[in-house]
User: Fold these one by one.
Assistant:
Number 1:
Amino acid sequence: MESIPRSRVITAVLTACLVSAAVAETKKEFRYVVGPNTVVSVDTQYGGISVKPGNDNEVLVVATLQSDKAEVDSRQIGDRIEIVSHLFEGADQQSGRIDYEVRIPSNATLSLRSSLGPLVVERLHGDLSVEGMDATVDIHDVANGHVHVNTMRGPVTLTNVSNGHVEVGTITGSITMKSVNGTLVRAVSGGGKISYEGDFGAGGDYKFATHSGDIVATVPAGTSADFSAHSMLGKVQHDFPLEPRHSHMASYQPGNAFVGTVGKAESSVVLRSFSGKIRLTQR
């Protein structure tokens, strides 16, 4: 059998790479005129979604497609915009990936879904719903809305979330919160660590729970809250004075629970873990 010259092999490989690169990435842009009650949903199987505020009467979507094995299905129904990634037969995580950059009115209602992510939302003031399997979630500088986040393994980070109704759930991912406050803040993880840094606001109801992960809360000196912490099998500690209050905590093993207040106890803070450690520390 006649052997193929090495130079021809290299040329063929380079040609294939150039052709692949030429069709590997394309961008598509979608613009929609909307009213004051805008609702935007973006659903992609593989890919990241980044959302920032734009014009008050427009939704702008820039989609980056990695191949011709996927397409963008979009439609507008009144002030509702729906963007969905449609995968063709044979698409995988690379060829089926579509990344989105989205600009919406700052007070719009937003829904995002991606298996891989990352999912990034910033500087909005409407209700947010974010879902992902392994997607990393980063939400920062948002206010005055409901923030609902659910992942399976993806880590969640919330930063500068004010006056919100916050509910975060993950099976094994970690949850990190910094300067997060509101009337209701819930964080639940099956095996991931929960970290909180902030003053727990005023008049808020906070509850953090994990099965096997640790919980670490770092608060400033001026915090005003009522604390209750308990771990069935893990150690629990606080490194600054709490005003004691009467309770049923005497039934717990020493070192596995504490209750007490700081300041006027304007917020309620409940920390629960089955086997993880809980630590309340002062910044």
Number 2:
Amino acid sequence: MVRLVLFDIDGTLIQSGGAGEQAFAQVCEIEFGIPNGAARLQFAGRTDPSIVRDFFVQHSIAPSADNFQRFFGRYVHHLNDFLRRLSGTVLPGVHGWLDALALLSHQPVQGLLTGNIRRGAELKLTHYGLWKCFRLGAYGDDHEDRNQIAVTARERGQQFLERSLDGSEILVIGDTPRDIECARAIGARCLAVATGKYTVEELVKHEPTWAAKTLEEISPETACR
């Protein structure tokens, strides 16, 4: 049975109305003086540090530790502002899933597996009332590579449970092919949901364990059995 459920955030738990992308764009323009600096950046399924690195490379900015710190220091300020200003939502089935997981007889630990930096994840999920639902997480701060973030999430789950976890005891829930890939990297089951930028048909091509339009289509009992 599944002992650890790891959720992606953007496009899986919430839709922030573009708050993250808008915050990136603001930092590019205000802090680094490059209007439309985020226009050519790809966001879906990626880690925040890898997106910032692309921005630095595209505009010949040194990818130094100081510049990363400078970027994210301003990013969280703008993110908090845009979360208040833009209209977003908790995605279909999320509340039902979280409630149902808590009622399972073998209640799994609920965690996060996200490319967001930790503070960004906290701001987003606190805004939508979800942050306290998760006992642990692995974030973009931990590694620039999503697959390595998955490894860290598994390790933290094992530490929390004080036991080793087989891949079949872990369920990754996400909305992009990268989520499917990082689940595969740790041998985990994967539930792919088409609540982000990818359709069910596009997700199925990457062979998740399950693919659904929303979390409403598959019950926790089925996915965690």
Number 3:
Amino acid sequence: MSNTANSVDSSPVSTEPNADQGLWHRVFCVMLTTTVLALVVAALFAPWRVATGLLLGGLLSLLNHHWLQSSVSSVVSLALGGVKPQLRIAQFILRYLVVGAAVFVAYQLRVVSLPAVLVGLSTFVVALFFEALREIYFVMIQREEIN
């Protein structure tokens, strides 16, 4: 298991450029799967505004995840002595402004249900719970130790 703690290596951060790509990919896939499943269930059993709210929230969550991944990669490369990232504080704020503006406009146009958008935005939390359960499983089954 390459994404769990390594008791032999003393460095806190891996210097491999693609060391965490498996984690990011798994989280993204769980977020996408959660969004699609919620959308299918909502399309069958809920009003159309709930379905569009889940779709908008899920898509914004996936976009936010992509922005977060690029931001964290820039910060880690800077910490490891790499090139300075092109990241500014304005980009952090812009990310939230884009999400907030999209939700505000969609809600004002009455095409989404606000609670459904919030549930759609929560797919990241679901993905983190799945990743935590996966890690717990590997620790218990394979008896991996975490320092």
Number 4:
Amino acid sequence: MNANWSRRWILGWTLVAAAAAVSLTVRPAVLPADDVGWRKFQVPVNGEIAVSQTFAMTADGLHGVEVQAEAVGEAPSGILAYELTETGSGVVRQGEIPVARALSSQAFTVEFEPIEDSKDAAYRFDLSSSHSQPASGIAVWATKGDRYRDGALQINGRDRWADLAFKALAPGARSDWERLVSMQSPPPGISSRTAIVAALAVYMLMCGFVLRAFSRFQT
């Protein structure tokens, strides 16, 4: 193999390896979400105040909504009620969450049965107090401004110039790398990450052998 083909082989192997690494981290869709911004404020959720966030879903398999919450005022108690309404279809998911569980971490996730064909659908996520066990001592974070362009915060059904700090969850928007890392059954005694790195190393070596063989064929 001459010097020119040697350089081409090295360049080709490097490009293939880089392309493979980049393709693994690319997400097929950006999920609806908004972080807590510097113009943040709290909205209590209780028997008098209910909050909602509208959003346009960008992937199939919507299975949850993550919300930022914090304890406020009196001792937290009661139960939160949630509903997920799809435009044109009505309420598609609903349930309840104890306030204590919602406040067990700064961000809590409302999980529900996945909606397989959620992509391109418009939703409204409602969070309110349970009628049987009223919620108290909890507030959710929101941020002023039109930060999330495909939806808005609503308080008691009225649009506000703000967005809830939220994140829609769907496996269809995970990158291949995230899917690989979440594997539940790697070989015994080997972690998922170790198995993935080993598989990628083997793949890159195979690419190198193919390119080397091709370069020899051309000489």
